[in-house]
Amino acid sequence: MTPVQTPAAAALPAEGPAGPGPGRGGAAKGRSGPGARRRARRENLAGYLFMSPWIAGFALLTAGPMIASLYFAFTDYNLFDAPRWVGLKNFTDMFADPRWRHSVDVTLWYVVVGTPLKLAAALGVALLLNQKRRGQGFYRAAFYAPSLIGASVSIAIVWRAIFSDDAIVDRAQRSLFGMDVGGWIGDPDWIVYSLIALTMWQFGAPMVIFLAGLKQVPRELYEAAEVDGAGTWRRFWNITLPMISPVLFFNVLLETIHSFQIFGSAYILGGQAGGTCGPADATLVYTCYLYVQGFENSRMGFASAMAWMLLLAVGLVTAVLFWSQKRWVHYEEAAR
Amino acid sequence: MRTNGTGTQGSVDRRSLLKLAGGSMAALGLTAAGCGGGSGSDGGTVTIRYAWWGSDDRAKRINQTIELFEKKYPKIKVKTDFQPYLDFWKKFNTQASGGNPPDVFQNAIGFLRKYDAKNVLLDLSEQVKAGNLRMDGFRAGLDTFGEVDGKLLGVPVGSNSMALVIDEKVFDKAGITPKPGWTWNEFHAALDKIRDTQGRAGDSGMYGVMYLYDLYLRQHGKAFFTPKGLGFTESDLTDWWTKALQGVRAGTYSDPKKVSQVKPKAALSAGLSACEFTWDNFTIRYTSEGKSEYGLAPIPTTDGKKTGQYLGSLMLSASKRTKHPKEVAQFIDFMVHDPEVAKIMGYDRGVPATTAQYEAFKPTDPVNQKIAAYEQQLVDSGVLEQITPHPAGADIAEAAFLRIAEEMALGKSSVAEAVQQFFSESKTALGS
């Protein structure tokens, strides 16, 4: 598999080769006769049976709630009384709500600052790990490990302890820089950076994808460039980056979408004190506010409207990214 | 793979796999059916579910009282569940909306109308008539505390009152002795004196405490809530928060940044201030949290007499959907009247609500004695009034009040913006 196919196939799993699924007739192909057809039908049935836990799960736990939430988005629904149709009121309320706008600001800030930092960290470490050195397998595993646990509740709690008042980060900051912030967690201007730091630390997944991309860059390109006298930076900028741009595009897309959906770490890092998220709502990211409205204020209609608005926004950003790849993503066909 | 006699190497015979699949589906179905159970009766034994919010310490005490109850009523089993305050209400809300609330649960005034409007709470007066629940023997008019529109929706377990909790060492050093009936001017002069002589802010910052602003409004013939909505105007609040912001800037109140940094510790017990308006039973928590000695001072007044104070209380409520109203009533009756329960619970949920329990537990440590003396003094001096009923959505308005006041104090919004934001959020929450 060339790197050309990797990102596209992974970014659009639904359109990728789905394997010999039922209904596609993979088994029936090239045979004929009633016996074979019956056999094929039975195999299809078996296939559906095997899929049934997944189909049931999808229908009951994903598709059903999604359709319901689309309906709730246009209603006033407090969980107890029947939903009351209110048309677009939830959406107009949303745009008029300063707290909603604040949550959008916090989220955009997090996406725009956090995603590039995380990807830069991932690419930097991937470049280091791509060199020939003893024990690279160990380092790869070690750097990937935080991604496995980083999104968990327990790590967010640990993070909260590390960055709170008079804890290790606060003390280091005081003794090294003479800055007394008094802990990032309690400070509305600083807490978002501890959130971004937590995100950066989980660079493992994009790192592994970058590594796969880097392995595919033909060595002879570097050799040719070296003969021409290109320095390290020049080689990185003119060879590595264009060659891995499809992988980069994939990572940018995935991480941006992930960042928009951040919830757990922001919710826990901010602490849950009476419907707030962080001091002065400093970590009130979009999904946190959605949760507050839905589960603390029992405004399920409003929360549903917020969820669909998020879907629209993420869809829009994804579309813009796809449109933009013409300008900076180099697939091999285009390069040759 | 080879061990399966009917299958060829590397693949399993389809029929046996289908059987397996069918079997696991059936197992799934069984599990689902098994989960459906909950409270129910079995062979004459009735199980009721009891949920509350609070700490591990409270849980230990409550579990002891439940053991006592089950000994006295061997036919009733109690299943328990507890969370911290906020999580408790999220879980309760979800359970109640799904038609599966606990049979009996801890409750507070701010939730009575909310869940009454949603048809969740059982009117216990039927059980009082049936003789399963005694509503006599309550102190200081607490027997009517849980009544809404003639329905008995909650039974008080203990009373508490807003108070000014002070750092006694700092107050002594500054030479300040608060007296009943002292005024807001005297109070603010004391705060300034503490700031100037003791090197710390006088007060933790009272501007976000709904229950204190309620007292201030009551001193002026208003209240925070009416049965339908808010009992004050935007200009009242602008006035209150403008003064608050001046106090923050002048260092009379603690730096709000530091206050939020020391959380979950309170600013008073963290040594950021010399006093804090809160519930009197919080003195216990501050004593265990902080390094100083803490005591209780009177609420400042406007006219030298009226403090606006009332007794608050945690309650036990039953859910309307319970299948065992009689057993639930017996449970509540036992918990509020039994003297042994009082000895186990102490003042954990406030000063016991019934005389029998009040007499049964006499505190021996100074902090609990101070709390008892404080409430006795409130009763004796006759300053206590009736609490204003809280409308549905009061809990959300209270949380918004605290949050928006904090943002304003941190300089994230102007007073005018904060006031506007609070009124707009309250209007949504109180549903008007």
UniProtKB/TrEMBL annotation, chain A:
Record field: transmembrane: 45-74, 108-129, 141-162, 190-214, 235-254, 300-323
Gene3D superfamilies in the record: MetI-like
CDD domains per the UniProt record, alphabetical: TM_PBP2
Low complexity biased stretches: 7-17
Domain ABC transmembrane type-1 per the UniProt entry, residue ranges: 104-321
Name of a matching Pfam family: BPD_transp_1
Membrane topology: Multi-pass membrane protein
Coiled coil: none
Protein localization: Cell membrane
Keywords tagged on the record: Cell membrane, Membrane, Transmembrane, Transmembrane helix, Transport
Superkingdom field: Bacteria
Cross-referenced InterPro entries: ABC_transporter_permease, MetI-like, MetI-like_sf
PROSITE patterns in the record: ABC_TM1 (PS50928)
Region (Disordered): 1-37
Family, per entry: Belongs to the binding-protein-dependent transport system permease family.
Name the record gives this protein: Sugar ABC transporter permease
Organism per entry: Streptomyces tamarix
Lineage, opening ranks: Bacteria, Bacillati, Actinomycetota, Actinomycetes, Kitasatosporales
